[in-house]
Amino acid sequence: MRLRWLVVAGWIGGLGCGGGDDSTDARDVPPETGDGLEVAADADADADAGGDADARPDAEDGEEDAAEDGVPDDGAGDADAEDDGAEIPDVCAGVDCSSLDGVCVTGACDPATGACRTEPRADGLPCDDRDACTDGDACRAGACRGTRPGDTCAEALPIAEVSGLTVYPGDFSCARNDYRLSCGRTIFGTLPDRVYRLELTAPRTVRLSVERANRETLELRGADCETGAALGCDDDGGSPATDLTWIFGYYPPGVYHVFVKEEDPGSYELNVLIDPEDHCEYALDLGDLSTSPGVGSASGTETTGAADDASTSCGGAGASDEMYRFRLSSRTLLRIELQSSGGMSDLVAAVARGTCPAGPLGADELFCAAGTPIRASQVFEPGEYSFLVDGATAGAAGRYDFRLVRAYGDVVLIGHDFAARRASADALLVNAVLTAEDFDVVDVLEYVQYADVAPGGEAANARAAIVAAMSPPALRTARFETLADSGSLAARLPAADVLLIHEQELRPDTATLDAIGAAWAAVLPAWVETGGTVILLDSAAAETWRLLAPSGLVPGLGAGTDATGTQLAVVSASDPVARGVSTPYIAPADSTTFAVATGTSVVQQTTTGATVVLHRAVP
Questions:
Q1: Of the ranges 473-477, 518-522, 611-615, which one carries the lowest mean pLDDT score?
Q2: CA–CA separation, 311 and 358 (whole Å)
């Protein structure tokens, strides 16, 4: 009956506080409906009105408590009933959480615990993440975050589908390494990259190129930016054929992604040319080919979709063509290579004066060849030039590959006797033959008029060294002819790639060599300037050098001294003639030095510094 006594005590207390006083305190506040205390008050009211009537309501109350709680009423609920009538304190009253305020969060009190916590401010609220590499900083889920334009596929920089040339300046100062490309040197896998996105709504001719960068890689992928296969990839990682980095092709509608990597991060320009309409205005500038190691065609180069702007004496009327421009700062021997890689059985390659020829090239045409593959060399004077790639027949169009490379004639002096085979001498001779411009079969014309041509003799040993290195399955092979009459040189030389002058130890006298050399001076320089290679083998006693001295191909060429048994060393390891030559080594019998005024000294005596092997590129 604890509940009854609590109610009675409350009623008595009410009487003691003065009946007519309207003042109230917490005890005067009536309980909320349904809170148990109200039930108890109703029961007391019944008791006051009817004597014994209070017994049954108490029983009923107990039954209700048991039914609701699932356990008998032990009186504990009476205290709860009294507490429910009291004011619940506000645990956050007076709590200051402003110390937790941040750019994208605000401090707030937890009403359940009274502890301070942070709540995110509205997403999109401008902020500054203090990172100079991000743009569009805004609050997102309580954190200030910006985007890194061009850093990943998700943040690719847009390329507009606009006809003509658009230049996109960029730099790698904020770039990170996110992707590995399909071409380029191994180091490119660790370099920073930039990503662009291009969406084509119609078939387009697209040319991508990178300028003002150093050792860069350029790759084009389709819609699958992260792992898609490369549609084109080009790099200028030091190869003579890739000094210019570009991708060119005719592409169907769709989404494409462009990647740029660079070995020496800095600024660059991504040039995007879409649907060029004027071959002169948008002709790709290949640069100064007198100073460049060379340029090669981009991945996907083709004439499909191009206009017919020019024709040549070799054909090209009515066929789609592509025009390039280049310049030469000095007299240059240019190696021209062109071949079809799909769609065209025959091609036309032409070089013309000026940078904007149109229609028939006519008098401006300086070089023209048709077929596939085309491989030729020609000397051009300093000036501005255009390079035309055309189909040989009307309506022809397709893919192609080209190379324009500065070529050189070569003169190599080797002061070694070939009376016996020696590894160092053999390697020097083979390397000298490989400087020839021809890429397949190298035609070697051997001058043997006063040489040792006996079986197993010097000429035979030299030839055997070349054959051993340049026979199938070698990619480049050698084919030999002999010249036993010096007077026939002018007639025989045009068909040769290499003139190999054996040691003329059987000459009657030095005057004979001087006379031959004077006659050859009218023929050799022009042949060498167009890519020919002269190799001269000599000994101190033979003085074969006299055959070349009058031509001026080696300025200051004169007699040296006997170098037999002296220590020799390779001093120009990067020269192609020095490839694979062990150093130092001992000079074999009858070796000689040369007096020279210019050229690259490849092998020297270690004690005197005198030249034993010389290589000179001409011009």
A1: 473-477
A2: 8
Name, in order, each residue with C-beta under 8 angstroms of 257's C-beta and a sequence gap of 6 or more: 153, 156, 195, 196, 197, 198, 220, 221, 222, 223, 225, 228
Beta bridge partners of 120: 105
pTM strictly above 0.85: no
Check: CB of residue 97 under 8 Å from CB of residue 116: yes
Helices first, then strands: H and E counts in the chain? 9, 33
For the segment 395-405, what is each residue's pLDDT rounded down to a tens digit? 888 888 888 98
Domains within the chain, CATH numbers bracketed: 160-406 (2.60.120.380), 408-618 (3.40.50)
Residues 6 or more apart whose CB falls under 8 angstroms from that of 286 comprise 244, 292, 295, 324, 325, 326, 387, 404
Cα separation, 34 vs 115, whole angstroms: 32
Per DSSP, the residues of 341-383 read EES-S-EEEEEEESS---EE-GGGEEEEEEESSEEEEEEE-SE
Residues facing 479 on adjacent strands = 443
Per-residue pLDDT reduced to its tens digit, 276-327: 654 566 777 888 998 877 787 765 577 877 778 888 898 888 888 888 889 9
For 402-459, give the secondary structure using H, E and C. EEEEEECEEEEEECCCCCCCCHHHHHHHHHHHCCCCCCCEEEEEEECCCCCCCCCCHH
